[in-house]
Write a structure and sequence with these properties.
Helix content is about 40%, strand content about 20%. It is built from 10 helices and 12 strands. The model has no long low-confidence stretch (mean pLDDT about 95). Bound molecules: NADP nicotinamide-adenine-dinucleotide phosphate (NAP). NADP nicotinamide-adenine-dinucleotide phosphate (NAP) binds next to helix 1, strand 12 and helix 10.
């Protein structure tokens, strides 16, 4: 029996010119186990396990990977782990949030933005990052209207260091504002939380990209017995034409295969 894959289901990432799988791999759990809100404890995979997970994802047709400086060692592990396969992947990283000694802090200045991008390029062993999102602290409009980070990302795009930029926020107002100038918004959208839906509507109407974070409510989605929460979650997402891809953070190969099979089924039916 041939397992379903996502190879034939890649779609445009808004107007960036990039094509991405409808399911992306989130990598918080490759780099950090402190200050996370998952329902179950976990052990960060070692290099062999991480390499296997990445090659499984690739074989299943996933070409989109999401990381951030705030995900502990995620970026610095991905550099060597993805060595030799840069062209396969659409890499998304972030800027603005730092995570040191178990605590987050934020810096949205132009100087920090440039320093952070140079550091990400080095860690990821690449000459350009496909998409960089502002990692919001929740004060979305303040960041967009009064900080230097967004215009600095716009300049870095013109300089060719990044192919696209956008915003990973926490409010609909922030997502809408971010899409006026940016290429992509990363929004929370799942069976429990749909307040950012207007951002997805706007993106669909204006050719912008939407990446969904916490598609499975970080693993907290529970439904009536007999209803598969993974299927119900992906049905909710992909009925909307504005969703480019769902970034799901799993380190479990069985979950990864299940998620791919369900997304393939939902998009094919
Ligand atoms: N920009 C931001 O502010 C931001 C914030 C949060 C997340 N993100 C990005 O979005 C990604 C996803 O967010 P998230 O990790 O918070 O939430 P999520 O993708 O909704 O949920 C991930 C959790 O669900 C579990 N899971 C995945 N597939 C499953 C399945 N088939 N059955 C049962 N459990 C399953 C995973 O556990 P297993 O490992 O056991 O599968 C993991 O604990 C992150 O990795 C990150 O890249 C971005």
């Amino acid at each position: 029996m041939t397992l379903p894959t996502l190879h034939d289901l890649h779609r445009p990432l808004g107007s960036t010119g990039l094509r991405v799988s409808p399911l992306g791999l989130g990598t918080v759990k490759l780099g950090r186990d402190q200050g996370v809100k998952y329902p179950n404890g976990f052990t960060i995979p070692d290099d062999d396990q991480a390499r296997l997970l990445l090659s499984q994802a690739r074989e299943l047709g996933i070409n989109l990977i999401d990381t951030a400086p705030a995900y502990g060692r995620s970026e610095e592990r991905l550099g060597p782990l993805l060595r030799g396969q840069r062209d396969h992947w659409v890499i998304v990283s972030k800027v603005g949030e730092e995570f040191d000694n178990g605590l987050s802090h934020f810096d949205f200045s132009a100087a920090h933005t440039r320093l952070s991008i140079e550091r990400s390029l080095k860690r990821l062993e690449t000459e350009h990052i496909d998409l960089v999102l502002v990692h919001s602290d929740g004060n979305d409009l303040h960041i967009l209207e009064h900080e230097e980070v967004y215009q600095t990302l716009e300049a870095l795009k013109q300089e060719g260091k990044i192919a696209g930029f956008g915003f990973s926020g926490k409010t609909a107002a922030g997502g809408l504002k971010a899409l006026e100038r940016g290429d992509c918004a990363m929004v929370t959208y799942n069976l429990n939380e749909q307040a950012e839906r207007p951002v997805i509507d706007y993106a669909a109407d204006h050719g912008k990209a939407i990446l969904v974070k916490k598609a499975l409510a970080s693993g907290h989605v529970c439904l009536s017995p007999g209803v598969d929460p993974v299927r119900a979650s992906f049905e909710l997402l992909f009925v909307h034409p504005g969703v480019s891809s769902a970034i799901v953070g799993t380190i479990n190969p069985v979950h990864l295969a299940h998620n791919v099979a369900i997304v393939a089924d939902v998009l094919s039916s």
